[in-house]
Amino acid sequence: MPRTTRMLRHMTGAERILEVLLTRRSVSPCRLQPPAPNPDELDGILQAGLRAPDHGGLHPWRVIEFRPQNREALARCFEQEKLRRDPLATPADLKKAREHATRPPLLLGFVVSPRERSKIPAREQWLSAGAALGNMLSAAHQLGYGAIVLSGERCFDETLARQVGVLPGEYLAGFISVGSIKETPPAARELLSQSVWSCWQGSDALPPGQPILPSERMPGS
To answer: Measured between alpha carbons, how far is 53 from 36 in angstroms, rounded to an integer?
Structure first.
């Protein structure tokens, strides 16, 4: 039995809130179907993003919604971007590029908008934007939807960025697809907390100039 499953079995009450985070995973657009989140649910997803840690309250990000009536126009933009990147793209390649615009029930562009004249370092603003994005994905999961963020080379195409409304000084970080899950994705790979965990031993315990070595493993590992 996966470790996460065993953990969830022993959770009660408020601890069950962790289930939202421990069971969230990305769901490919090909596994999504309508209905998409309604306007109130979308607002809740955005509000979750606005609750992310944000030094200075800058909200250095925004989203662009691509509504169904404009998807064919976006598909043409994706097709043109693919041809700029690969003039020898096959009809199958172009069809796939178009589907990236038309398939998701809900499609959002996630834009990072650093405030250049702010005293808050740019790296902290990027961290805040990433935290907001994570909150939004978790909120979609909590509401029962599947979601994924896809980036790729098209996000670095300046022409496409301008076509979809990204302003100078902003960055198109990716496209968020959200919808009802029609096909459950494979189980996520279990990862050990020790892979990202360490414990500082204190600089006073080290001779001057000696590097800090990785800490001992978690007890019981």
So the answer is: 27
- CB-based contact 86:51 (threshold 8 Å): no
Write the burial class of residue 128 (CB in 10 Å: 0-12 exposed, 13-18 middle, 19+ buried).
buried
Whether the CB-CB separation of 178 and 63 falls below 8 Å is answered with no
- State the pLDDT at residue 206: 61
Question: In this predicted model, what pLDDT tens digit does every residue of 148-187 receive, in sequence order?
Answer: 999 999 999 999 999 999 999 999 999 999 999 999 888 8
Predicted pLDDT of residue 188:
81
Instruction: Kindly report the pTM of this predicted structure.
Output: 0.84
Beta-strand ranges (E) seen in the chain are: 32-33, 61-65, 106-112, 146-150, 171-181
Residue 74 neighbours by CB distance under 10 Å: 21
Q: Which domains are delineated in the chain?
A: 26-194 (3.40.109.10)
Residue 184 gets which letter from DSSP?
P
Question: Which pair of structure tokens corresponds to residue 213?
Answer: 């070595």
**CA triple 142-27-41, angle to 5 deg:** 35
Q: Percent of the chain at pLDDT above 70?
A: 85
Among 99, 93, 129, CA closest to 114: 129
